[in-house]
Design brief:
187 residues, 16% strand, single chain
Amino acid sequence: MVNRTRKKNTRMRGSKTHGYGSMKKHRGAGHRGGRGNAGSGKRADSKKPTFWKAWGGDKDPAKKGFHSITGTTQYTMNVGHLSSIADRLVEERKAAVTQGAYVINLRELGVTKLLGAGKVVKKLKITVPIIAPAAKEKIEAAGGSVDAAVVVDKDAVKVAREARAAEFRAAKKKTPPQIVPAKKKEE
């Protein structure tokens, strides 16, 4: 059977220091060398400036980068999804049907970019700020039309991205250290 009585020594009656050794060891944080990482000198938490150099000197890593106040979030939709919800948009009076074509203004629906995934089975007349070339091709192949401010050119985007990457790599490239021959001692 289990013994359920407590050990008599748990409350440390008669113990002057209650397991802390010398009395002065339990006063404040002196025996620990300070609280937390204080007093750790070179060892614990004091080497931050070495990795701060990656952010340009003594700057806080949390402050790295730039956050636009206006924001640049693209609200996207795939052309296949748009084709499938066209009837519902007409019922909700967010779109209209004229001359057998669904007239949809995506800017009014809050969509900023139309992407090209999916099948277009309906004739669509779309107004959108930005459209992918695949989406434009599919809509026009189904007999529809597109009014877009910007048609994304994949090749131009790819070339620009590669140019930025090459520029970044060139800026990061360090010159190798120069090897200087040692001077001979004269005897």
